[in-house]
Amino acid sequence: MSTMSLIDRECVRTLLNSQHPDATLVFVRGECVVLPATEVDDAHKGLVIARRDDVLAQLPDAAPTDQMLDDLAVRLDNIVRDLGA
Question: CB pairs under 8 A, 24+ apart, for 50-53?
Answer without folding.
Answer: 50/15, 50/24, 50/25, 50/76, 50/79, 51/22, 51/23, 51/24, 51/25, 52/15, 52/16, 52/18, 52/20, 52/22, 52/23, 52/24, 52/25
